[in-house]
Write a structure and sequence with these properties.
Length: 818
Amino acid sequence: MDFVNKLPPMDFLRSEEMTLVQLIIPVESAHRAVSYLGELGLLQFTDLNADKSPFQRTFVNQVKRCGEISRKLRFFKDQISKAGMVSPIHSSPQPDVDLEELEIQLSEHEHELIEMNANSEKLRQTYNELLEFKMVLQKAGGFLVSGQHHTVAQERELDENLYSRDNYADIPSFLEQETRLGPSNEAGLRFISGIICKSKALRFERMIFRATRGNMLFNQAPTEKYATDPMSVEMVEKIVFVVFFSGEQAKIKILKICEAFGANCYPVPEDITRQRQVTQEVLSRLSELEDTLDAGVRHRNKALTSIALHLRKWTIMVRKEKAVYDTLNMLNFDVTKKCLVGEGWCPIFAKPKIQDMLQQATIDSNSQVGIIFQVMDAVESPPTYFRTNCFTNAFQEIVDAYGVAGYQEANPAVYTVITFPFLFAVMFGDWGHGICLLLGAIILIACESRLGSRKLGSFMEMAFGGRYVILLMALFSIYCGLIYNEFFSVPYHIFGGSAYKCRDATCRDAHTAGLIKYRDPYPFGVDPSWRGSRSELPFLNSLKMKMSILLGVAQMNLGIILSYFNARFFGSSLDIWYQFVPQMIFLNSLFGYLSLLIVIKWCTGSQADLYHVMIYMFLSPTEDLGENQLFWGQKPLQMLLLLLAVVAVPWMLFPKPFILRKLHLERFQGRTYGILDTSDMDLDVEPDSARHHVDEFNFSEVFVHQMIHSIEFVLEAVSNTASYLRLWALSLAHSELSTVFYEKVLLLAWGFDSILIRLVGLAVFAFATAFILLMMETLSAFLHALRLHWVEFQNKFYHGDGYKFRPLSFASLPDDED
C-alpha cells in the first residue's frame, strides 16, 4: 500500500481540481474584464439570474443589437456567396472599430446593397421582358398575314412602349400594360400574341378552344433556347403562340386565360416593315440594358469585395461582443454599489492567470476601484475538466459520449487510448487492410493544418476529428494481422518456414493431409500451413474464442480495479470492502478460473473439455473430473471457488445498506461529530449562490439500489463475458469475407486468359475491399469496440454523472450562429 501511495499522480486520470470563485466588478470595467476572461477561457460563469426571462435582464438591448448586426453580416455573406465570390480566410488590416461605429457602417452598406439589388432586379425584369418580346417578334411574324394594318392607336402604343422613356428602370412592365388590338367596334379577324411555358401549352390551347367554342386558330412555335421567366426568374423552355379570333368578348376571355396560365402577351405589328423596325429597336434596347446590367454588377461586386475583406473580422468581433453581453446578463447588478457580482468555476491552476487578467482589465479601463476576486465554499459538485490535446481529445470524446465523468472520478479515456484501438484490431486484424487504414490516417494527419481551417462535410469532419484514433486502429490492425498471418486473407512466410512438412514422399497436398510437425513452432503468429487445411476453421475458432474470453476477463478486472482506486480516492472504505472485494472474488472465482484453465490447457496441450468442466462445476461439484482434470488439486479448488462465489453475493448485498443506516443514526444521535464546511445560515445569506441541500437518507431506497446493483453485477458477469465473444465472431467474419472476395472474385477472374475478365475481377475485388471491408467492416468493428467499452468495461466503475466544464472562451465560439 505504501508503494501505491508513493506513485506520482496521473494528470489525465483525474479531472482538474476546481474552485468556486466570486467576482465583484465595477460597472466601468465589467465589459473589459469579461472580454479578457473570454480570451483566457478558464472561467465558467454561473447564471445568477436563472429566474429571469431574457427580456428582463440588464443588457438585453445590447444582445439585441448584436443579433441585428449578426443578421446584417449573414446578409452580406449570402450576397457574397450568390455573387460567386469567396471570403478571404485572413482579413485585411483595418483600424479597430467599436460596436456603434460598426453598426452605422454596416447599416450604410446594407442600405446600399438593398438599393442596388432592387434596381438590378427591375432592370433584369425589363431585360427578360424585352428578350421575350424579341422572341415573339421573330416567331409570330410568320403567322401574320401581310397587308393588314392596325390602327394608328396601336402604332402610337408601340412608339410609347419602345421610345418614349430614357430611364429604363422606370419603364412600366409590358406585363402590366393592357394589350390593345384596335377599337372595340372594329370588325374582322383579330389576334393575341405572347409566350408561355411549354409544359402549360397543351392545357392552355384546350382552355382557349373551349372558351371560344372552337372559334379560334392557335399557332405555336418553340423558342431556340431556354428563356428566363420575368416573374419567377427561372430558366424554362417556352413556346411563342398567336391566337386568331373574332369579337370583343373572345378577346376578354383569352386575356383572362393568359393571365391565369401566366402567359406573357406582347403586341406585334402585322406590317413587315414595322416588325423589322420594332425588332431593331428592341435589339438596341437589349444591348443598352446589357451594358447597364454589367456596369451594375461590377459596381455591386466592388462593394461586396470591400465588405468581404473585413467580413470575417467583423463576424468574430460581433460573436465576441454577444458572448460578453450574454455573460454580463448572468451577473447580479448591484445598483447601490454600482458593481456587478458574479460567481463561477475555475481550475485551481488558473487562479493566478485570472487575477492577472482582472488586474490588467482594471488598469486598461482606468477604473479607480479594483476587481475583487475571492474563493467561496461550494456545496454542489464542481464541473469536470480534462486538459486534452489533439491526440487525446478524440478518445475523451468517445468516453464523454457515454457520460461525462463525475468530479475527479477515474477517467476511462486513459485506458481507452490503448484498449479501444486494440479491441478494434482484434476484430479487424489484417495487416493489408491495416496498411490501407494507415495510409488514410497519415494523409489526414499530414493535411491537418490545411483541413483544420476548412468547413468539412459531416463524414469528413468525423474522420478528421478521429484521425489519431484511426492511426492507432491501423497500427494495431497491422499487429493483429501479423499474428493472424493475414494479408488480404493471404498468409505469408514472413518470419521463417512452416513448422510442418509432408509425412512421406507420397504426400502431394501439403495443406489437407499428411502433415507432421518436424521443428519448433512458427516464431510469430499463426503458421501459414494452417491456411486451407481441414482443421483450419476449428483451430482458428478455438484460438480466437479463448483469446476473446481472456481479453474480456482482463478488461473487466481492470474496470473493477479502477473502482477500488475510485473508492480509495474518495475515502469510501465501504465501497472497498463491500463492493470491490466481493466483486473481484465473484468474477475471478468463475471466469478468472476459466481463464486459468484456458492458459493451462494451452501450455500442457491437454484434451480436456472446458465446457464440461465449467458446467459440472455447478451441477456436480463433488463428481470426479476424470480425463478433464488439468492439474493436481483441481477438484477441491473448484469447490472452494464455488463457495466463494456463493458467499460473495450476500456480501455485496446486505452489509453496505445496514452500515450506512447505522452511520446515519449515529450522526443524529451525537455519537460522532465532524467539521461543518457550511452552515445553514450561510445558505440563507447567499440565496443567489449556486448551491443545493444534501438529500435525506432513505434506507429502503438505499437497500433497493444496492440489491439492484448486486443482482445486476451477478448477471452481467455472465452476459458481459459472453459479450466479449463478439471479438471472435467479428474477427472470423472479417477473415472469411476477405477470403471469399479473394478466392471467388480475384482468383476466379485470374483463371481466365482474357485481360478484360482479369481487369473486371480486379475492379470488383478492389471495390469490395474498399467499400465493404474497409468501410462497412471498419464501422462494424468500431461500433462493437465502442459497445465493449461503454457497457462491459465502464459499467464496472464509471458513473458518468458529471457535467462538462464550459468556460467563457472566445476560441470555442461556434462559427455560425442562428
